[in-house]
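Weekly puzzle thread! Below is a chain. First person to post its structure in token form gets bragging rights.
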Amino acid sequence: MKQLLFIVSRPPYAGVGVFEQIETAMVAAVFDAQVSILFRNLGVWNLAPDQSGQRLHRRTMSKILSGLGEYDIERLYVCQDALDNSSLVLSDELPLEALDAQGQARLIQDCDSVIGFQS
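Winning reply:
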């Protein structure tokens, strides 16, 4: 089984890139890839529990992320430094594991492909 890592480093409503990236991860999981997602840099803001895309006429990222388990995407990681710098308080709804720089490097090395969208 191919191991794919999606690195989300953009905030949730700065274009459609993050939504497309998460949807691509879901499609990959449907086709039996082992999918992991790492949130880092400004991407940690996708994990904010009390958000709403309604005012921007967009889907709400927290609702999309809560459905990842339905696609067997349960390997979710967050950059410890970015989390500390954001002062963001995460909910317990997502099974997130915080990784330091060394842990992130090991994660990247252990995956067959790393996908990070630029837009």
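Puzzle host: Confirmed. Bonus trivia for everyone else. The chain has a mean pLDDT of 87.
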